[in-house]
């Protein structure tokens, strides 16, 4: 088992400590590229097909050359195999416009250990603060160049929101639009429980379509949950039976405190955690 893995899109396993990017790579100087983060479990990249589809859509939004999905799948599988089966890992697929001076796009896959906060969030849940995102739910449609539905490498504001929340001792953030609608987390999708109904805001409101939420919705119907896409207000979070932040590596993080208010754990919480677990292992496995 490796402690870190680096594979380039040409299928070469590289030394993860050796320099890879040139100083003028547009990933480094402009954040001009796209990426995916996913879980490696049992030596396999989970929900890889959902991530490859989103990588294609993100690349299209940025006018990057169409990703060669076969090469990406092979590189991801090779990297997961190199990582091994002993522990879960966090995989990144990174695809930038390449060097400012010209040439091919930059494309590589890495795997590393899960951040400490991941196990804590899974086991104990998280405290969350709602923060203004500073724009309307309409922005995605009125200003497509804002790339709201694409997973771009420009995550500085998302990271700044998390640091801001940390100053108030919150583990995570739920962004709210200028109309006061619930959007998403800086690195997660919001899903609420209302009885046996699961609700998430529609991606048309200028948020990233989450692969974990999608995988959950694919399996939850058979488990007797109704799954809906509907606009939500912060009051819907407070009056819900449970608020979850879903994401590929952490999977299901239950919000135990929202803006200082303690949220009780519903009788369905364990079931939801198991469903997400089953979903990421069964939906979108390699073709
Ligand atoms: N929304 C944003 C802004 C994200 O960065 C992420 C994940 O990184 C998500 C939602 C959740 O997506 P996924 O479940 O595919 O990890």
TrEMBL record:
GO terms for molecular function: 4-amino-4-deoxychorismate lyase activity. Its EC number is 4.1.3.38. InterPro entries: Aminotrans_IV, Aminotransferase-like, BCAT-like_C, BCAT-like_N, Class-IV_PLP-Dep_Aminotrnsfr. Keywords: Lyase. Belongs to the class-IV pyridoxal-phosphate-dependent aminotransferase family. This is Aminodeoxychorismate lyase.
């Amino acid at each position: 088992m490796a402690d870190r893995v680096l594979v380039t899109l040409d299928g070469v396993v590289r030394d993860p400590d050796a320099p890879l990017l040139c100083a003028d790579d547009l990933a480094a100087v402009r954040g001009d590229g796209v990426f995916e983060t996913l879980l490696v479990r049992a030596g396999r990249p989970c929900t890889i097909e959902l991530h490859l589809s989103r990588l294609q859509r993100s690349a299209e939004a940025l006018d990057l050359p169409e990703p060669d999905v076969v090469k990406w799948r092979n590189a991801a599988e090779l990297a997961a195999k190199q990582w091994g089966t002993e522990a879960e890992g966090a995989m990144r697929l990174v695809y930038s416009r390449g060097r400012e001076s010209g040439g091919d796009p930059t494309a590589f896959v890495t795997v590393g250990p899960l951040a400490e906060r991941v196990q804590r969030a899974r086991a104990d849940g998280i405290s969350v603060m709602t923060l203004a995102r500073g724009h309307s739910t309409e922005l995605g449609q009125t200003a497509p160049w804002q790339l709201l539905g694409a997973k771009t490498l420009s995550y500085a504001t998302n990271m700044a929101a998390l640091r801001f929340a940390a100053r108030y001792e919150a583990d995570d953030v739920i962004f709210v639009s200028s109309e006061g609608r619930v959007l998403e987390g800086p690195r997660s999708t919001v899903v609420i429980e209302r009885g046996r109904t699961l609700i998430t805001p529609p991606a048309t409101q200028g948020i990233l379509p989450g692969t974990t939420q999608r995988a959950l919705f694919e399996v939850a119907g058979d488990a007797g949950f109704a799954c809906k896409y509907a606009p939500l207000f912060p009051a819907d979070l407070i009056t819900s039976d449970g608020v979850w932040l879903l994401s590929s590596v952490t999977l299901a993080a239950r919000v135990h405190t929202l803006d200082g208010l303690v949220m009780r754990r519903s009788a369905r919480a364990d079931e939801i955690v198991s469903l997400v677990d089953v979903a990421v292992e069964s939906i979108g496995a390699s073709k």
